[in-house]
Specification:
It contains 15 helices and eleven strands. It has helices spanning 47-55, 64-73, 98-108, 115-132, 136-149, 162-167, 170-180, 196-207, 255-266, 272-278, 310-323, 330-348, 351-365, 371-379, 383-392, and strands spanning 4-9, 15-20, 27-33, 77-82, 87-93, 186-192, 228-232, 239-247, 285-292, 297-305, 398-404. Helix 3 packs parallel to helix 8 (196-207), helix 9 (255-266) packs across helix 12 (330-348) and helix 12 (330-348) packs antiparallel against helix 14. The longest helix has 19 residues, at 330-348.
């Protein structure tokens, strides 16, 4: 039997969606909340990610050990993530364990937020921030994003800063949770071998009394502040360069061409930047990638090498970017398209990946698109499409920064 899409919205606004596949050998569930770093007040930066951690600390009825043991007893592969756009809690299980897994995730979604757990976990978050501060790529990337989008909240760091997390109060987190983790701001995504009606009954029993708050988001594309900047750090020994330019949004079909154009420029192992920088020994690594967001998008270009080679690295990148619109070849496009189609198709064979794709797409744009439709649109991208998107969203019009050892 072919995969069937199902949808139901509860009276409180919570949406349940599913791709039902009776032939699958597993099933997956994910609770997607349309809230992330871009939805936070600047003084609360990092609260979404911090709150994700707190979900695993238990409810009024369940301890943290009860939650962890519950997933272990079901043999679940479960986890969570927070981004600028959304927060997700999920579990991948055998079909017979889907309903108890759904119940456990649903209960997690109403945490106790105990003060002692909050105080303990705050130290964990601060350690995580310190860990990322030792990663030169993330230090440069976060600074570039901050400068590119400032003062828009898309500049917010998912982990927050030492200052914002240190100053955050438990009651402020509770206020954010109450407003953003509402029924009408949540999507339950299911995929695999499952009974949709039974799953809906379970979700309604567990979540039917959740409040509707009218939580929303202004996804108007922000004005950006393109600038050049330098950073110095005595803990690094290499030189790093990163640029961020605008790109199509998640709602814009030009994102398919932008994805392939970025791959032509900077895919790992066989791309314009690889051959110009890595194979020639000018840089140690070089890459480019496109990321679509709700209402906007961006492409970033990154390279690293000897600190005294940053100037020739930048020159080589500028040359490849300038030549990119006229440098697309059908063979390159077909090769990269085949890789992208293969990756998407292989992922589509796994209920977990289908659940993730379904939940992310609905949370971002509020509609269903079959995987086959997405693959068709990717397959339809032409050389001319890539040329146009490279001209319409020039990578030379970017925020660009460097990080090198302190003088």
């Amino acid at each position: 039997m072919a995969i069937q899409f199902k949808e139901k919205t509860l009276s409180n606004g919570l949406t349940i969606i599913a791709e039902v596949e009776p032939a699958a050998h597993s099933a997956a569930v994910g609770f997607f909340v349309k809230t992330g770093a871009r939805d936070e007040d600047t003084r609360l930066m990092g609260v979404s990610h911090f709150l994700e951690h707190m979900m695993f600390k238990g409810t009024d009825e369940l301890s943290a050990d009860d939650v962890n043991r519950g997933f272990d007893d079901l043999g679940a592969r479960n986890n969570a993530f927070t981004s600028n756009e959304m927060t997700c809690f999920y579990a991948h299980v055998l079909p017979e364990h889907l309903l108890p897994a759904t119940e456990l995730v649903a209960k997690m979604m109403r945490p106790a937020l105990r003060q002692d757990d909050f105080d303990t976990e705050k130290n964990v978050i601060l350690e995580e921030i310190a860990m990322y501060e030792d990663n030169p790529f993330w230090v440069l990337y976060e600074e570039a994003i901050d400068r590119h989008y400032r003062p828009h909240p898309l500049r917010h760091r998912v982990l927050g800063t030492k200052e914002s997390i240190t100053d955050l109060k438990r009651d402020e987190m509770m206020g954010y949770f109450t407003q953003r983790y509402s029924a009408d701001n949540t999507v339950v995504s299911l995929a695999g071998n499952l009974d949709f009606d039974r799953a809906c009954d379970a979700v309604e029993r567990l979540c039917g009394d959740w409040d509707r708050t009218g939580a929303d988001r202004d996804n108007t594309a922000p004005k950006v502040s393109r600038e050049k900047f330098e950073m110095f750090d005595d803990k690094v020994s290499r030189g790093y360069l990163l640029g961020i330019a605008d790109g199509p949004s998640a709602q814009d079909d030009r994102r398919y061409a932008a994805t392939l154009a970025a791959q032509v420029l900077g895919a790992g192992g066989n791309s314009r930047l690889h051959w110009a920088l890595v194979e020639t020994g000018i840089a140690e690594e070089a890459m480019a990638a496109f990321d679509a967001h709700d209402g906007c998008g961006n492409t970033y270009v990154y390279a690293s090498g000897e600190p005294d080679r940053l100037a020739p690295i930048a020159d080589a990148i500028d040359k490849e970017i300038a030549e990119l619109p006229g440098n697309f070849e059908a063979d390159d496009l077909e090769r990269l398209r085949s890789k992208a189609l293969t990756a998407a198709t292989v992922g589509g064979e796994k209920p977990h990946d289908r659940m993730q794709r379904l939940g992310r797409l609905w949370t971002t744009i509020g509609e269903y698109r079959p995987l086959e439709e997405e693959l068709d649109k990717l397959a339809a991208v032409t050389v001319e499409d890539c040329r146009k998107v490279a001209e319409e969203f020039p990578l030379s019009d970017a925020t660009r920064g460097t990080l090198r050892p302190a003088p």
